[in-house]
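@channel sequence for tomorrow's demo:
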Amino acid sequence: MMSFTVSELIELCRQYYPTGRTLDDHLHETSSQWQRFHAKWHEALADQHQWLEFRRRVAAAFPTSLVGDATAYTHDGGYRCCIYAVEPRDKADGVSQEVVGCVSLLAPVYFIYCTQHRYRGGRRESPADTVFLEEMPVKLGPTVSRLADLIESALGCQSLPPHVARTLIPDLCLDHIEPGHASLFKALFTLEPNVLP
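structure tokens (generated this afternoon):
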């Protein structure tokens, strides 16, 4: 399994996202980096066999939980699979907790985080009211560990530690993210970790 340094991951992201642009500069969509990013997604969409097989394995590993695809195709830096691990007993007023496994399309790395959604009047509120990027709820620990094992064995990816994922990439231009606020997590995985189907 290949290891990456922080600087190597930053340089990798610079190959797929333009730098030195502002949010109101719509020309970033014509940049060679942006075109490379979309070409990577088109290639991935043409052959989704590995991702679909992985999702089947996750569903088989968690037969009592709902498993879903939370990928924002062609928008995010990778795939997302979520396990609806804790459902509220009373959906009229309670919380649900989800475990989300992110697999980057740009590098063989993954990240797992958890979310918590509130239910009010029987409806699940979105986006999530809490996103756990570092300290996971204790109750979700076994689900997080099992999902990590599945990602590593089925996809051969390595875990990206939270302190590395938080690293900011100066001047990187991501959709709806001000320059200077783009992190490795947002570039490699998802812009909106709190939005799940």
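heads up for whoever presents: The longest helix spans residues 32-46.
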